[in-house]
UniProtKB/TrEMBL annotation:
Gene Ontology molecular-function annotations: Glc3Man9GlcNAc2 oligosaccharide glucosidase activity
Coiled-coil zones: none
Name this protein carries in UniProt: Mannosylglycerate hydrolase MGH1-like glycoside hydrolase domain-containing protein
Family: Belongs to the glycosyl hydrolase 63 family.
The keyword Hydrolase belongs to this UniProt entry's keyword annotation: yes
Domain of life, per lineage: Bacteria
Matches recorded under Pfam families: MGH1-like_GH
Listed GO biological process terms: oligosaccharide metabolic process; protein N-linked glycosylation
Occurrences of domain Mannosylglycerate hydrolase MGH1-like glycoside hydrolase (ranges): 38-434
Keyword entries, A-Z: Glycosidase, Hydrolase
The keyword Hydrolase is annotated on this UniProt entry: yes
Length: 443
């Protein structure tokens, strides 16, 4: 007897579940990463979200990025959070009264009409804009999507290669762990140790009202995040070299900067006019790739390492951030091959003990399979690696990773992150970028 209920395939389960999460998290002009834990708009989240949304609604995906860029500062920076004025101040910390961005307007040119944070996040946006455009080029052209966004994307990239080139070798430096998006990565432990934490009673961690303490950064980390962000604010969010107590060149941040520079070349070519020169972006992408390899590549480790700009030394911690330059087309082939070996080797365990690539070295003393960016596997990192594997011809590895990601996303209810060995859900559920990137892989 034929059963009336047909077994559902994994991609179709993933697609339907992801659509449900994304519509639940849509506010009307952008998507929150998570209703309870992150009730505002986050910068790199919106990039990843748009990449998935483009398959369901190219118009909504365009809107996601346009809403973010409406909060861009006059100096080109795209803030890491755009606050929703309808959400009570106590729902998330640090709230607008901490950042006071609209009051900083004169110096750095923060918009007066919207409240934002003052730090940034990895620049995935031009890549996202290009992928969104490609989902429906005719509709994108009708709305002038790329034409309107292109100058803003260029200003954003030039903020990073200009004022943020604190090391003086072309790469962008992050000035706060939040800017890496990998907030409590063990890579930040040595440079953060120099920062004296804000007093624990001076702020309230709203994240602990929604998240499990063992899955989140420690109070000591938070004290240091607050100290660094507060002192940046008190200096008017200025980026003069020598003024930042924390400055690090991060390979993941810079890999996305370069991938976005390549995307700007594609966008410039699609616009096809004199104001937009593809060659200029390609030249810049190549010279940044060269700077990345010469500054951050470690041949002994087969991995890119972070560089502490203030101490002028490479940090020895092995993080998944060091694998992400695999997304770059201009990487020397021997470097790409070494990165693939490292992903499968003892430190990241792909195809061995790890089902998904962990955020941090499985053998490292700072490794913790549950705690945020100190070990759990994240879907944006794995999505980028899957893409990089295909780019460098490792299709079988990419196929296996894709299947694991779909399985883990569905089984974990689109968790924020998962235990890299078991795939067990960690952090919040119904997390937007997990849904969006799973949706992208399901097709
Ligand atoms: C996490 O970071 C925020 C601060 O920006 C937090 O912990 O409150 C990170 O995982 C970051 O990468 C992400 O963009 C953000 C929102 O999903 O949450």
């Amino acid at each position: 007897v034929e059963s009336a209920v047909q077994p559902r395939s994994l991609p179709s389960l993933a697609y339907d579940g992801a659509c449900r999460v994304l519509s639940g998290n849509w506010t009307g002009s952008s998507t929150v990463p998570s209703r309870a834990l992150y009730p505002h708009q986050w910068s790199w989240d919106s990039g990843f979200i748009a990449i998935g949304l483009r398959h369901v609604s190219p118009a909504r995906a365009q809107r996601e990025l346009e809403t973010l860029f409406a909060a861009q500062w006059a100096d080109g920076r795209v803030p890491h959070i755009v606050f929703n004025p309808e959400i009570p101040l106590g729902a998330y910390f640090p709230s607008p009264d901490f950042w006071r961005s609209s009051a900083a307007g004169d110096k750095a040119g923060a918009p007066a009409s919207v409240e934002t944070s003052g730090v940034v996040q990895p620049p995935v946006h031009a890549l996202a804009a290009w992928l969104v455009h490609q989902a429906d080029p005719a509709a994108s052209a009708r709305r002038g999507f790329l034409r309107r966004l292109y100058p803003r994307l260029v200003a954003w990239q030039r903020y990073l290669t200009g004022p943020r080139d604190l090391g003086g070798h072309g790469l962008a430096a992050i000035v706060h762990p939040w800017e890496s998006g990998m907030d409590n990565s063990p890579c930040w432990d040595p440079p953060l140790a120099r920062i004296s934490p804000a007093a624990s009673g001076s702020f309230h961690r709203a994240d602990l009202d929604h998240g499990c303490r063992a899955d989140r950064p420690t109070d000591l980390d938070y004290g240091r995040y607050v100290r660094l962000a507060g002192s940046y604010r008190d200096r008017g969010y200025e980026d003069r070299p020598g003024t930042h107590p924390f400055a690090v060149e991060d390979p993941a941040f810079n890999a996305l900067l370069i991938a976005s520079e390549y995307a700007l070349a594609d966008i410039a070519a699609a616009l096809g006019d004199e104001a937009a020169d593809p060659a200029e972006h390609l030249v810049r992408a190549e010279s940044l790739t060269w700077a990345l390899v010469s500054r951050l590549w470690s041949e002994e480790e087969g991995l890119f390492l972070c560089r502490d700009v203030l101490a002028d030394e490479r940090l020895p911690q092995r993080s998944a951030a060091g694998l992400l330059p695999l997304v770059l087309p201009g990487l020397p082939e021997e470097v790409a091959a070494a990165l693939l070996r490292t992903a499968r080797g003892p430190h990241f365990g792909l195809g061995g003990p790890a089902r998904l690539v962990p955020s941090y070295d499985l053998t490292g003393s700072g490794f913790d399979p549950a705690r945020y960016w100190r070990g759990p596997a994240w879907f944006n990192v794995n999505w980028l690696l899957e893409r990089g594997m295909r780019l460098h011809g490792a299709d079988l590895t990419a196929d296996a990773l894709r299947a694991e990601m779909l399985r883990a996303a569905v089984a974990s209810d689109f968790a924020e992150y998962v235990d890299p060995f078991s795939g067990k859900a960690r952090g919040t559920r119904d997390f937007s970028w997990t849904a969006a990137l799973t949706l992208d892989l399901s097709l």
